[in-house]
């Protein structure tokens, strides 16, 4: 049976709290957005979608090696934006500026996914934290500037995602510590 999965870097609870506090005025101002709960905020490096347990298991050695080659580090969390870049927005996001080793980690996650049989991701990687999704077509709102500070990145996680009525539930399948050989 397939499970919905993705590979991500979790962010610490202090940053989740800073993001929740700094986006509170935006939540009050923007209607029609289904907000991601603070505990679910993470930095996705590769969304996999429906995945067989065998394909996920096949990715594990490459993910372990890639995580070991990437030292624990910090990323800048700053700037609000929307996808797509033009027209009615569907996703509201908070930008992240990743150091070189984390960009190489993302490339290794993509390579691991393709080697395990997943289709190559056709879109270029855009580092971000998804804050919410617009429920309906709306005019593009003006967004304030926002700087949430640094994110400490220490662990690469292969997550299972269960979509439920009250929101997604993310469960770690396997964790790989950054910089651990």
**CATH-defined fold name:** Cyclic Phosphodiesterase, Chain: A
Radius of gyration, CA atoms, in whole angstroms: 16 Å
How many DSSP E strands? 9
Second rung of CATH, namely the architecture: Alpha-Beta Complex
Brief write-up:
By secondary structure, the chain is of the alpha+beta class.
Descriptive labels:
single chain; alpha+beta; 181 residues; globular; Cyclic Phosphodiesterase, Chain: A; 3 helices
Structure notes:
The protein is an alpha+beta fold and 181 residues long. It has one domain: Cyclic Phosphodiesterase, Chain: A, CATH 3.90.1140.10. The protein is 28% helix and 41% strand. It contains three helices and nine strands. The strands form two sheets. The chain has a five-stranded antiparallel beta sheet with strand order 2-6-5-4-7, covered by helices on one side. The protein has a four-stranded antiparallel beta sheet with strand order 3-1-8-9, covered by helices on one side. A hairpin with a 7-residue loop joins strand 4 and strand 5. The longest helix has 17 residues. The protein is globular. The model has no long low-confidence stretch (mean pLDDT 96).
Write the layout of secondary structure elements.
Blueprint: E1 3-10, H1 13-29, E2 33-35, E3 42-51, H2 53-69, E4 73-83, E5 91-97, H3 100-115, E6 128-134, E7 147-153, E8 155-164, E9 167-177
Antiparallel strand pairs: 1-3, 1-8, 2-6, 4-5, 4-7, 5-6, 8-9
Helix pairs in contact: 2-3
